[in-house]
Amino acid sequence: MKLYISLLLAAICCNWALAQSDPLTVATFNIRYDNPNDDPHTWDNRKDVVANLILFHEFDIFGIQEGLSHQVNDLDVRLPDHDFVGVGRDDGAEEGEYTAIFYNRTKFKVQESDTFWLAPETDHPNKGWDAALPRICTWAKITSVNAGQTFYVFNTHFDHRGVEARNQSARLILEKIEEINTESLPVILTGDFNVGQETEAYQLLRTAPGMKDTFDAAEIVYANNGTTNSFDITTSTERIIDHIFVSEKINVQKYGILTDTYHSRFPSDHFPVMAVVNW
After folding, report:
1. This prediction's pTM
2. What domain range is 98 assigned to?
3. 226, 235 in Cβ contact below 8 A?
4. CATH assignment of the domain containing 241
5. Which residues belong to the signal peptide in this entry (predicted)?
């Protein structure tokens, strides 16, 4: 009997450990909207490179910014194991840029998802505060197929001009996380926040109770550059404006800013940021 109990306890502990240690690769990637004036860095020249970068680095779940409907669909076709959730910011359907969340459907199932606008009126397309453009945040409640772990992913793109809009957007997202995540599940927040680590909006998110920046928390950090490049391979920056925040309960194994190139060009005018996490 004692031997049976010992074996049973060992099996339970083993199963628990496997569920707890299953790593998840998350990322945020501003893919640059399809601007014909970007030639030779047009979307047609970049779309295969962007998709192959994602496949090579094995992003399980990632949020994109600036993708238009046809760009989102181009990625959907090129990532056969992934699905996505999200809408265009201009009409809540297909018009305007998306903050889509892609996820590997062989590993994860989406239980719920929605999009809200970064504005005092969050339920329909509009601009908030001093923002130059409508801005949105897409979220998904996701469950892993194997481990049965459920968590939330929020993905956003802050305004590039409105300082007040960025500060208020940070406050709004934190309020929405609390409002939506009534079960206190783990949370991952990705995005192009258009703010460096010295700004008020960033500090609001970094120091929010129960949240942390994966840059700070990672056991291994590979960040030899900032996150923007303007498609110019001759210059560099230290400024990080694309971030991945996570709940305090999430362990961050690795963090990286991926400065991949192809034929002396960049896949986008932003570098993707990735983190390997578990809990």
Report:
1. 0.92
2. 25-278
3. no
4. 3.60.10.10
5. 1-19
